[in-house]
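Researcher: Here's the sequence for the chain we discussed earlier.
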Amino acid sequence: MNKDSMTDYLSYILFKAFGFVVRKAPKRLGLFLGRRIGDVLYCFDLRHRAIAYANIKTALGKGLSSCRISNLTREFYRSFVQNLFEIFYIPMLDKEYFQKYVNVEGSGNISEGFKRGKGIIFLAMHEGSWELSNIISSNIGFTFNMFVRDQKRYRRVEGLLNSYRQKNGCKLIQRRNQTRQLIEVLKNNEGVGMTLDQGGKTGVLVKFFGKEASMASGAVRLALKYDVALLPVFYTRLNGPFIKLIIEPPFEIIRTGEDKKDIQDNLQRLVYIFEGYIAKYPSEYLWTYKIWKYGLEKNILILSDGKTGHLRQSQAAANIISGYLKTRGFKPTVEIRGAKFKIGFSKFILDITPDIIISCGSQVAPINYILSREIRAKSIVIMRPPFLMAGRYDLEIIPEHDKAPKRGNIVVTEGALNLIDERYLKEQSDKLMFLAPSCKTLSDICIGLLIGGDTKRFHLKEDVISVVIKHVKSLAEEFNADILLTTSRRTPEKVEALLKAEFKDYSRCKLLIIANEKNIPEAVGGILGLSHIVVTSPESVSMVSEAASSKRYVFVFKSEGLSNKHRRFLENFAENKYIYMAKAEGLSRQIKEVWLERPAIKTLNDSLLINEALKSIL
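Model: Thanks. This is the structure I predict for it:
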């Protein structure tokens, strides 16, 4: 006996024995026990509980506290196990039980459906005491047919369950013979039970609580082709053994003659009906499967800590992920949200239900972790996360100079991720020329000067900047070149004053942007796009990485005060010829040498590594 057969045999014995014991106990006691087992499952079934919580949050979470969503999740477990227990009672259910415990709302709609003479499809979702449908139907007074799946691995358990289902005259339609049997049943004007949700790969995508989900279209197709009556039904438990069955009037099928559109539109209208019931009775729905798994819409959330460099890296990652998703037929959208630990953090969580969360920097990495676990989203962090959080994310994108450990969820990049490519540079250049018309008429050679500023350990010195200014001006005169210059918000006031004094009235300076006075977001991208030679200060990994991705000759002037990690980053870039390192005193000489020789320009391409890693997590 193989493993599956042994499991099947033991499950059969356990199922039968447990059913015997449950039926001997008062029904209220059995259902009470079901609720308590539901509580136990809620505590220990961590994986499915997380899925259920995330699904309830996505569907109903707007305006609900996390405590309320947790309570709904617990109530779902209680209801689910009670419904399972009710299966054990099927052999002993009779007309007396039906009259005592089952309240049918809309029973007259059944007669209305049968008047057509073409059969009825009782359409439900995976909710409530669906397994009692055959008992309820027989007591109302018509033959009911139920679809069942072939359980090849567990034949004994399937046989026992099917024997329960066939009590009171219920007929079974096996999936393998479903088309022939189904048409025959409907021609005999009988009733058939079908479900609408869990359409899988072959289902039709419609909106379910605002997000695309795969729904089974078989019932709608039959109604369109054979004019079968569709009656949406919903089961809910009132209290203990008391159940309410709600039967909607026959669904009015809309026909336009366009098959695909008719299927989609009618299916969507049916889903809206069930949304109303699920919102009213949320504990009845089966929340433990991945409801939106087959939807093509993928929402990407960027958590921003307010730092421009970090945001640009996150946007670059989002662009790479969006491109990857598009190649697989998905429709990605990107949203940026500011995130900080504060009193309103729980409300911040409740407003968002993305599929992928991206963050850059240690400040927002913990929020990424909490939020992604809260809603079962994929978590992606850029830069090395805090020590205690390492290894907890789906993907960690860490630059080489951070000395990342070797783990399967880590991608090591050479520099900082950035948005720079030819399309981006063209867009930014066009925007910059619109904002600064002086950039429309530039010389054949243009020098871009990117000046950063102070960090925690690094201070931009005036004497170094004075030397850089002297050399850049000298080159501009010798090459008959124009200069485009921008500072950053970190640039010290004294350095800003020096730059203004030297370049404000200098005829070859066609653009001077002091970020602390009037920041232009397109400045860096536009300057990189319009320049042939780029000179940048050394302290910003993001700025240097952007320049190194622009396919321009990039020169980084040296300055004291950089950390060992930062020096490793610059040395690696210089060794791989992404940039040229130069002392301020030798800047013009080195630029002239490179410009005259015109070697091939090497550019960063970390996106290929990230694309490869995405295959394993998306």
